[in-house]
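== Protein entry: sequence and backbone fold ==
=== Local backbone shapes as whole numbers ===
==== Amino acids and backbone structure tokens ====
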Amino acid sequence: MKIKGLVALMSMLCLMAAGASAQGWLNNVVNRAKDKAKEKIEEKIEEKVDQAIDESMEALENKKNNKKNKQEQTQEAQPQQQEAVDESYEAQPEVATQTAKTQQRQPLQQKWNNYDFVSGDQIIFEDNSAGEQLGEFPSMWDAFKGAAEIVEIDGKKCINYQNARITPLFNNNQPYLTDVCTIEWDVYFIHEKVWEANEGTDLHGWAGQNVSLVTKDKITKDFDWGSERALKIHFESQADPDRNVMTADFAFYYEWWTPSGEHRDGKYDLHNVDLEAWHHIAISFNKRAYKVYFDNQRVANIPNAKAPKWVEWETNSDSQRSHFIKNVRMAKGAVPLYDRLASDGKIVTYAITFEVGKADIKPESTGEINRITKMMQDDPSLKFEVQGHCDNTGAAVANEKLSQQRAEALVAALVANGIAKDRLTAVGKGSSVPIGDNSTDEGRAKNRRVEFVKK
């Protein structure tokens, strides 16, 4: 029995040892399985990360390549496009000119918002060339040398002069400017390449017109260019006639003489000036100082200067190029708005002008419109009847209709400046209320006006 018990005990011990060994082996198997699973999971994660990185890098590379391809395509297309423009320009210069001008134009009103020039109160000379005959010498002018004639540009009549000195012909050739006065005109700048193609001339730059304000008591052919001159202004450009461009840089030169006879000068650079376009020039003189404006810019502020007595336009002595001007206007005085309103109960102004035969307000009217606006803003009780007046040129019915449209356009401009519409009434008077003699040029100029009548 003892032997059997011992055998049984040994068998039990062996079975227990075998169980323990099996458990250890099982544990090892489980642990290795876990390690394998962990390794598989880590490998999957690494694969996903690598794949995401690869996809991101590929997307960035594709984006970069697409951008590069677009740039290359644009660069390839630009020369072809420019070549096409050049060919079109050579074949049809006027068409190409109009296209370029359209692309470069900006809204005029935005440019002129800060314009502060205001025309004088009493018109002494005005010539818009509207009633002139093409090919004739301008009837309101005289020439001391050279040639001048009426021509048409873009459907608008103007004065063309070459190698000339011309001056307005009125007041029996006696002085007409005063110690408070304004002078305005429009000038047209030629694009050399088109001019060369059309006229067969050889142009290598644009020598601008000279304008002189003179102090001499009587207008004559000869005078001392130094001691008898008050102010001279001159424009000059060196635009390349071989380039298909529609703008140029201009140098604006000015010289003036002090009351003691001292000569002084200055310069102002004008950039990207439109060619084959009209530009407005204005000069004001107030007792001893000049201000000069080119379009919406003030280009000279000149102190301690001689007072002018008359004005002339001239070209360089060796210049055979054509020069074009129109809408020449001279006026006296500049009475403050409140003084005019207090004394007369109304404001009569010639500083607001319109296109010939239209209700389109010229941009150079902005200075006066801004002054009226500020006056009404400063005094909220002010209300005006805005009256448009014409001369007697044309039919009375048409004049009345046009003057009404102009009055309405002016009301709209003031409303756009922030004035309440119920403070303004537009009335067209036509030619029914003249204040000047309609049989003379000066009288008709006085009748073309705007009145702000206090209500």
The chain has three domains: 44-78, 117-334, 335-455. Helices lie at 2-91, 93-104, 108-111, 192-199, 337-344, 366-378, 396-416, 441-447. Confidence is low (pLDDT under 50) at residues 13-22, 70-109, 194-198, 200-205.
